[in-house]
Amino acid sequence: MSQDSQHGKWTISSSDDDNDEALPPSGTATSGSRQPTESSHSSYRSATPSPPVEVKPEPAKPPVSSLAVGSEARQSAAKNQLNPVKYETSPSLAGKRKKVASDSTGWALSDSDEDDGEVKGKSLSDLPKKVPPNPKTKKPKVESERPPSPHGRLYYIDEPDDFFESCLPPLNDTYRFYLNKVTGLEKKYNSGALHIRDILSPLFGTLKESVQFNYCFDIAWMVKQYPSEFRDRPVLIVHGDKREAKARLIQQAQPFPHVRFCQAKLDIAFGTHHTKMMLLWYEEGFRVIILTSNLIRADWYQKTQGMWMSPLYPRLPKESSASAGESPTFFKRDLLEYLASYRAPELEEWIQRIKEHDLSETRVYLVGSTPGRYVGSDMERWGHLRLRKLLYEHTNPIPGEERWPVIGQFSSIGSMGLDKSKWLAGEFQRTLTTLGKSSLRPDPPMHLLYPSVEDVRMSLEGYPAGGSLPYSIQTAQKQLWLHSYFHRWKAEATGRSHAMPHIKTYMRASPDFSQLAWFLVTSANLSKAAWGALEKNNTQMMVRSYELGVLYLPSAFGMKTFSVDKNPFPVSASFSGFPVPFDLPPTSYTTKDQPWIWNIPYSQAPDTHGNIWVPS
């Protein structure tokens, strides 16, 4: 099947595969691993060369094979950055166009079945093919240095001198929800934000051991983020890689004997180990971080990411009872249950350590997903039914709640089915609209935030930011109905409009967007694989992936609702409203806006580095 749009022509498969994740099961590409495949390559072409400008040279980049990238989309972005293709004003790269019939969306579909390649990250044979070069067309010159960024010279600097904290920064201790620092922003927008080096620094504790749960890893880079005095302390890596990907991951760690591994069981097809969590054991106590960033450099500098950082949990007195140190939100019980779901001997000592600490100060609820098929009361342990149960038990109905919109914001999208009733506006919306024990099932507005092509094009990273937004054409063309829900990524209040989101958040807002009924930050994207889907006439819940997030409910903070902080930066230690990472109310797509789709070309206009995006 062929499609045509303002971005050129591409070819898609007519496969009826309806699996949820566009990402492959593997989560790494590692040092010494094979190069990303040609089918995942995105080239760059140049705008008219700009006059020489004085810019700080970029640090030397590693070869593509050492970049830790977890999907074809990330591989494409990696190659894109290493081998830029510059924008030209020459004829379209799309090649000869076929006559197609347009629909009202601005996309064009034909009845041709030219390709029937596999989808879901298994093969990219159905992606756009390379067009043979036109002998009359001058071969584009690939320059060694990128043109100046409209975002300023700071783009080229790894981080300014004062990027990392030398003393404990002012932090919002009420909610303990923090954004990651972003290079190239005004200093005030990083005040109260955290980098991985800040998290692991002695400012927060004297580290003895740690566990890193994640999806993508660059082991050498990760080790360097630990301060030198902690760099040889034992680290356990919890991952979902299998076979060759697992071997490459282990190979990465060969120079680091203090790094050990725990493989998460993934017994259901297309599931991933997507949870992102740190367990930090200190001489002074214990801490949990639940976050949205992979353990690769690209996730920590120019993307919008978020985290919940626990208080420092003190050790319980010896001979404490089994129920000691529990929080009003039962966080300790739920974290232990989540860790037990791995059925991994490597985690047993950590389960025991958590039991020995006092987690009673925790004010958030844990919302996790673990792979499996669940029946009976177990259906409410994981995924969106877990969220539904918490909203049912710990919130209250609100007058006029049918006018309180649901907001979902994410960086990847799975297959939702042929229409909204199949999952999104059915079981998932029922979860997101639950408020207390009301039998009312309102149908409030639903706003879904996902970056448009223009958002990505004008971002700090330019088109390569789209490598972390792996919405595929194979999925998108089956659910054009979904795009009417979409809203732009705009984050002026946090200074992050040009830092593309890898954070995932869900919330329920008042009609004037000044209050929140609840807020969730999580690793879970908009997919059935992440959130689970009901089966067998709603008597069974099937979850494919590991995910983890924390839910903020006003009742746990002695409030009826959370007020939204309209100016969350710079952060002060005094109490303020909830720091929503993007602007409210959300901005709807216009008829000209298209959702970012990673595996089609964008050659009509250059990005902020003068480049275009041409998957081949």
Task: Characterise the protein shown here.
There is one protein chain. Helix content is 14%, strand content 17%. It is of the alpha+beta class and 616 residues long. The longest helix has 12 residues. The chain starts with a strand and ends with a strand. The N terminus is likely disordered. Keywords: Cytoplasm, DNA damage, DNA repair, Exonuclease, Hydrolase, Nuclease, Nucleus, Phosphoprotein, Repeat. It holds the Pfam family Tyr-DNA_phospho. One of its GO terms (cellular component) is nucleus.
SS-derived structural category? alpha+beta
Largest pleated sheet: 8 strands, mixed
Q: Helix tally?
A: 11
Helical amount: 10-25%
Whole-angstrom Rg: 24 Å
- Cα distance, first to last residue? 17 Å
Task: Find the count of extended strands (DSSP E, 2+ residues).
Answer: 26
Percent strand:
15-25%
Q: Point out poorly predicted stretches.
A: 1-70, 90-133, 137-157
Molecular shape: globular
Summarize the structure.
By secondary structure, the protein is of the alpha+beta class. It has helices at residues 72-82, 196-199, 219-225, 243-252, 331-340, 348-355, 383-394, 424-432, 453-457, 473-476, 528-531; strands spanning 2-5, 8-11, 42-43, 101-102, 108-109, 177-179, 207-213, 235-239, 259-263, 277-282, 286-291, 303-304, 306-309, 365-369, 372-375, 406-409, 446-449, 486-487, 500-501, 504-509, 515-522, 533-535, 540-543, 547-552, 562-563, 614-615. The model is unreliable at 1-70, 90-133 and 137-157 (pLDDT under 50).
